[in-house]
Design a protein that fits this description.
Blueprint: H1 2-25, H2 31-68
């Protein structure tokens, strides 16, 4: 029984304790921080969209050349 306690119950208790500690430590971002995060995320979406568009733009002619021969 103590083997089960040491291998299963104790790690679960420690995980629970660490999780509660993490949630208590977390805070909501203020307006300035939220806008900064949203701005960075928006720029990331925009850049990744352009990268995908240009990869597709380059891929289509190369694919047509390879498939036509």
């Amino acid at each position: 029984m103590s083997d089960v306690n040491a291998n299963i119950v104790q790690p679960l208790k420690q995980f629970y304790k660490d999780s509660v500690h993490l949630v208590k430590k977390c805070t909501k971002p203020d307006r300035k921080e939220f806008i900064k995060i949203a701005w960075a995320t928006g720029w990331g979406f925009l850049i990744m969209g352009f990268v995908g568009f240009f990869v597709k733009l380059i891929h289509i002619p190369i694919n047509n050349i390879l498939m036509s021969t």
